[in-house]
Write a structure and sequence with these properties.
The protein is built from three helices and 17 strands. A seven-stranded mixed beta barrel has the order 1-12-11-15-14-13-17. The longest helix has 11 residues. The N and C termini lie close together (10 Å).
Length: 242
């Protein structure tokens, strides 16, 4: 059954940095190609990452792959700071800046396309939200448009039938994207303070999380796992089946 199409594809080459919208990408066994493949370890908390939760201004740093996708190694990661300075992953000046701003000791972690660990996204392979649910949340919140970047999804799905939160009825079912990729819809995405952080200026809006908690039992968006890998494109049709 045709349920809609892919409105936008977003991957995050660096965990907790702003992601990049891409016209097409490969879906790997772990999720979108290169998604959360680079991260900063928070050396003040053993085994933990430095994220927006500890350092909200991370959301103002953007990261993108500066090159074509390759399976042997990732293209170089280009990072733009909030002040507009362009750096590369591994630049000592970037690490020093983040340490000074966050007041934490950090170290760099990165993987190859073949060894991204299960759970790079920390929960599941891929997170999906729908246009109808975003529009309904805007109504529930009663504020300006809800920027999907607050929720850090990988796929924004434009529904044929604009029924809010219908994606929550798909758990245990599969979707096919384009001609190759299949995902299984698994469960809700439980939200945290990250959604309160404005992706442009890092200012906090606690009322959004309160709304999600009160109106949606603290859930928004759904997690999916990869069943069949392949390439997806913005605009691809999405079909639902058991």
């Amino acid at each position: 059954m045709l349920i809609g199409h892919i409105e936008e594809i977003v991957r995050h080459p660096v965990k907790s940095f702003r992601g990049e919208s891409v016209a097409e990408t490969n879906v790997m066994e772990y999720g979108l190609y290169g998604d959360r493949s680079h991260a900063f370890a928070d050396d003040t908390r053993k085994g933990k990452y430095l994220t927006i939760t500890q350092f909200p201004e991370m959301v103002r740093y953007s990261a993108r792959f500066a090159g074509e996708e390759a399976m042997s190694e990732y293209p170089s990661v280009e990072i733009t700071t909030p002040e507009g300075k362009v750096m590369n992953w591994g630049d000592a000046a970037l690490a020093l800046e983040l340490e000074e701003k966050s007041k934490r000791k950090i170290s760099l972690l990165s993987y190859t396309p073949e060894n991204v660990p299960l759970g790079a996204i920390e929960e599941e392979h891929i997170q999906l939200v729908t246009d109808a649910s975003l529009e309904k949340l805007k109504e529930l919140w009663g504020e300006a448009a809800v920027d999907h970047r607050r929720f850090r999804p990988n796929l924004i799905l434009s529904l044929k039938d604009k029924t809010p939160f219908i994606e929550e009825s798909w758990f245990g079912k599969r979707i096919k994207i384009g001609t190759e990729v299949e995902l299984q819809l698994n469960r809700h995405c439980e939200r945290c303070m990250i959604v309160t952080v404005d992706p442009d200026n890092a200012e906090r809006s606690p009322s959004l999380l309160k709304t999600v908690f009160k109106q949606r039992q603290n859930n928004f968006g759904v997690y999916a796992s990869v069943i069949k890998t392949g390439k997806i494109h913005s605009g691809d049709e999405v079909h639902l089946f058991d």
